[in-house]
Amino acid sequence: MTEQPKSAAPTLGDVLAERGVSRRSFLKFASCTASIMALPPTAAAAIAEGLARARRQSVIWLSFQECTGCTESITRAGTPSIEDLIFDFISLDYHHTLQNASGRAAEEARMAAMRDNAGEYIVVVDGSVPLKDDGVYSTIAGISNLQMLEETVRDAFAVIAVGSCAAFGGIPGAHPNPTGAVAIGEIVTDKPVINISGCPPIPEAMTGTLAYLLSFGAIPELDHLGRPKAFFGESIHDRCYRRPFYERGMFAGSFDDEGARQGWCLFQLGCKGPVTYNACATLKWNGGLSFPIQSGHGCLGCSEPGFWDFGGFYKPLSTANDDPLKWAAGAAVAGAALGAAGAALARSRRKRALQAAASQVQAETAPAAEEKP
Amino acid sequence: MELLEFARGPALTFAFTVFIAGLAFRIFSLLLLWRSRDSSAGRPRQRPVAIAALREIVRRMWPETVYKQRMLFTLINGYVFHVGLALCVFLLLPHILFFEDLLGLSWPHLPNNVIYAVSVVTLVSLIAALVMRVANPVQRIISTADDYFSWLVTFLPVLSGLVATSHLGARYETLLALHILSVALLLVWLPFGKLMHAFLVFVTRSQTGAQLNRRGAQL
Fold first, then answer.
1. What pTM value is reported for the model?
2. Largest CA distance in chain A
């Protein structure tokens, strides 16, 4: 948490050596990072070299309308890991939950970090920003979240929006969105914004992205929603170990039926895996132990925009997310009335045509009758 | 995701509203149309009216021997895509879940892999139907825009469904949204074009059967 001039700061290699992490372990981590980010094998050496030489990176973590679940996720590793060391290695100059300082001292730390690392520091944001009523629904240190965000990102190198609230508005932005919550990317438009969505995001997605930034000093390849493709490039469904059951048409019909006990596909129980892009099925959670589907519950689609309003967690994806028949009765009555009116019009026309024809015949036959003596 | 939300929400609601209004419009306008009284005495009837009507429904499922040779491919191809469409629409679990959510009714399903195979056959059969329509000079002359558009709105849901399940060309949610939108287009068009035969085919056949019976046709 202390401020450290960059030139005098130890490199990550120094820090790891000091903590007794062997070069072998370090290379293993670099290979693992390269692997999970779908980088070529040669990138492992580049990551190892880049990280070993990288110096302490200033990070300012802003928490807005959020639940602290994202911080819980990144700090709750099952066992002390090299990812923790990466997290320790960065200079986390401002973080509500983790910092010792409070009040004015905390804000001064943020200002100092911004001043001393202008153009180089990374801003991590969790939580959405309320815009309604001048952002009065969430204020920190007497200023609105919007003011704090604009002020902090002004000289940042990059912005990382962690969690679905920061990335897409998340739960605060769900219908009816009483605070006018918006995603960070809707406010910050002149800086690169990396979205690491999820409720919460997978820890490795956060540390992996951070490791990439530290190693290469560049933004990883992103998808159309601004998420690193390495973690969000494939759907849960495509990598799900239960996928073969989907193809075979073997589905759990409830959470305690034979299908559920046999580990069949959870599509029928509302699993959103087919439309959710995340690495849960491959990296898993709690040190690779499990993930929701493995635990017997369908995917909620938490890493996708608007997941909270996506028609109900337990409604199958193939159902409508509204009632398509809500106007059916009115439509039937209106259609029947129009049909009856159309038929009546046709009858009336026919009747008029017949009358006209009869009159014409009468007119043509009448003179002939008069001519008869 | 936004497109999928639109497809699963407002698009489907709009499509079902137009579909139901259109069905009611067509059925009521047909039933209430003026029907000329047949003043002729009529020939001795071969069968009771109801039997004659039902018999005509069944009889027209297979052509007369004299036409069979010429119509065999058209006939079999017609059955292939009609049965294929029915299997795809009513026996794929995601579709059954849709109907269950809509109507509260459920029934057994076929494995997805079987439905994939059926949909490929259906797709090929639909293409064959179009090729035959275009290649045959007589059929081409009597074909209208309605025929081609009805073919298109039938073809698109099968194609988009197959592409979506195969994850070809775009992200799954986009493909799924396009599939649902293509179904919405089918629903909107169905009451107003030749696809209305789905509801009227047995009505018209039975009407024809009753009329032919009145005129003493020995069928």
1. 0.81
2. 136
